[in-house]
Amino acid sequence: MENLSFHDGNIFNLLHSRSTEPSHDVDQRMQLHSSLVRRLSQEQELEGHQGCVNAISWNSTGSLLVSGSDDLRVNIWDYSSRKLVHSVESGHTANIFCTKFVPETSDELVVSGAGDAEVRLFNLAGLRGRADDDNALTPSAMYQCHTRRVKKLAVEPGNPNVVWSASEDGTLRQHDFRESTSCPPAGSAHQDCRSVLLDLRSGAKRALADPPKQTLSLKSCDISVTRPHLLLVGGSDAFARLYDRRMLPPLTSCRKRMPPPPCVNYFCPMHLSERGRTNLHLTHVTFSPNGEEVLLSYSGEHVYLMNVNNGVGTMQYTPGDVANFFSLSNILHDVESTPQVSTTQNGFHRNGNAAMLKKCTELVELAKSSLEEGTDIFYAIEAANEVLDAHSNDIESALRHECLCTRAALLLKRKWKNDAHMAARDCQNARRIDASSFKAHYYMSEALQQLGKCKEALDFATAAQQLKPSDADIVAKVESIKRDLQAAGAEKKEEPEGGTGRVLSLSDILYRSEANSDSSHDMSRSEGDQSDYDEELEVDIQTSMSDDEGGDPDSNAMRGSLNLRIHRVSDDNKPIENSGDNGSSGTASSSQNDRTSYQPEGAIDMKRRYIGHCNIGTDIKQASFLGQRGEYIACGSDDGRWFIWEKQTGRLMKVLVGDEAVVNCIQCHPFDSVVATSGIDNTIKMWSPIASVPSIVAGGSAGPATANVVEAMESNQQKLSRNRENPLSVELLQRFRMQEFAEGNFHPFECTQS
Description:
Low-confidence stretches: 332-351, 510-591, 699-706, 725-750
Structural class: alpha+beta
CATH superfamily of one domain: Tetratricopeptide repeat domain
Number of helices: 16
Largest sheet: 6 strands, mixed
Number of strands: 36
C-alpha cells in the first residue's frame, strides 16, 4: 500500500545526523533505505557470458564481482567501470553452479563448483601479461571426490585456506588447500579422500516424525559471518539444518557411509513438516547479516524467515504439536477466557504513540471494509500485516483479536497457496486472546474445510454454533461440512477391498527407490553414470510442447499424455525384492520398528512468509537479505521478475523485470546501494536507485512495466497451484535431464530446470 509509512526513518533526518555525527550505523541504514529501494531501476547489463548465468558473488570490498555460467567460464567484473576483467576457461565439463572469491587472498583466488561434480581453484595471477584471448588457466587445485553435481560453495570470512562444497551426492566436503590440491575421482583405486564433513546420504526426512533414511541431495549451504562455527544446509526435503562445526565428528572418507550427525536445529514451517511430498525441497538457505535469522527458499513454495536462537518470538514445535494443531482442544490450557483488560485507552496501551495508534485503528477498519466489499484483498492483508507484525505489542488485545480474525477471513477469501494454513494460525492466536470468540471458531472451521480436514472443521463449526445458535452463516457452514463428510464417507465405501484406492505416484516410487539405493552414491562416477539409482526405471512418454500462439504463454508445463512402465531389475534382469538399509528387509514391520525406536527432534517454525513470486522451474533460485542490516528480502521468480519485501512486515516493496525468462541469483553490493541479478539470460543486470520517482513497479531495459502487480502475482500463484496439483512435472523432467547429463547427451539448457 503506497500510503503506508516505512519503518526505517526519514532519509533527510538520517542525512542530517550523518553530517553532524558520523556513525557506521547510519551508513548501514542509508545503504538500502526504503526511499532508495523504491527508486531501484536497471542501470546496466554486463555482457560477457554465452550461456545462463547461474552464480554471482561479490568480493569482500565490493570492488569485484565473480560469475559462473553454462558457457563453462568464470568471469571477473570490475565494479567501478562495470567492465569484464578476466574470462577464465574453467575446464569444467558441465554447467557451473557456484563461484566464490577466497577470502584474504587479495582477490586472486576464486573457486568454482559445477555439474561435473568437480571443485576447481584458480589463481588469477596466472593471467597477468597474457593476451585477451588467452584465457585457459590450469587449476591450482582440483577436487573430484563428489559423485553428483556441486550446487553450492561456502567460505569463511578471514580464512584463505578452506572452502566447503555442497553436492547432490548427499555430502558436504571440506577442502583444505594446505593439505592437498587434488583428489582423484570417487571410486577410483587410489581414492581415499577424507574430506566429508557432513555425510547426509542417509539424512533426508519425509516428515518431522520420520527417522532420516534417504539421501539428502544438498542444494545450498551457508556459513554465519558473525559465528563462523555455525553451518546451515538445505536440500531435497523440507528441513534446513543448522550444525555447529565444533561439535561435528572428524572428517571421514566417502567409502564409509556414516549416520547423519545430530544438528543444532531443524528449520521448517509447521505446515510443511508433515506434507511428505518428495518434490518439496529447498533451493536456497542463508543467514542474515547479523546471524540471528535464516531465510529459506522452497521449490513450489514461498520464502520463509526464521529465528536462529530459541527465545522471544521463536516457536519450536514437535511432531505432537503438528498433530494437535487443528484440534479444538488445542491451546485451551493457555488461552484467555475473555479479552484482556489492561491499562489502555481507546483500545491502545496508554504509553503508545497517539498518531500510530490511530493509524492502526484505521488500517483495521480498512481491512474490514475490503473484506465486506470483496475488493483489494491483497492490500487489505498488507494493512493487517502492518498492524500485527509492526505494532502488535503496542495495541490492546481486543484490537489485535479483531485484526487476527479479519486477516484470517481475508486469507480465506484470497485462497493463494497456504493461505488457509496462515488463516488457521491467526484463528488459533485469536483463540489465545478470547477462547469464546465466535469469529475465531467460524473462520477456523472454514480454514479446515478448505484444507480438507472436515472432521476437525465440524468440531469448530459446532463450537461456533453453540456460541451463536441463531447465526444463519454458521448453520449453513455446519450443513456444508456435514455434506463434505458424507461425500468423503461414500468415497471410502466405494474403495476396493484390500486396498486404499490410492494409486502410487511416480514420486512415491522414486522416493522408495532412493530409500533402497545405499550403494548408488558410493560407486565410482563411471559406474554411477549408468543410473542415478541401483534400479532401472523404464518410462514411455507421449507428450508435446505446444508452441501455438493461442496457448498459455505463462505455462511451461509439458502437455499431452504420460504412459509409464516402471519396474526394478537386478543384474540378471530378474525382479529383485525390496531391501532396507544395510541389506535389511524392507518390510512394513521393520519400517514401523524404525519409526517406533526413533526419537524425533523438534523444529523451529516460521515467523514470516514472503509471497508473490514463483519458484518451480529451477533449484538454484536464491532468496537474499538486502543491505548490511538485512532489512529487505529479495527473491527471483519464474516469470522473469524479482521481488523485494520489507522484512519486518512482509510488505511488497518492489517488483522489477530482470530477465526474459527466470531470475535466479540476487546479490546485494556489500556497501553501496546496488544489486546484481542474473538468470536464464546470458547477461548480469545491475540495479541502483536512479529512477526519477519512487514506485512499487519498475521495468528493465524495455522501460517501465505496465502490468498490474496483483495480476502478476495471481498468475504466479496459479503456476504454484498447478505445480501442487501435478507435482511430478518438474521432478520427472529433472530426473530425465540428470540421466541425459550422465550419458553425455545434455548440456546447454540445464539452467532452466537446474
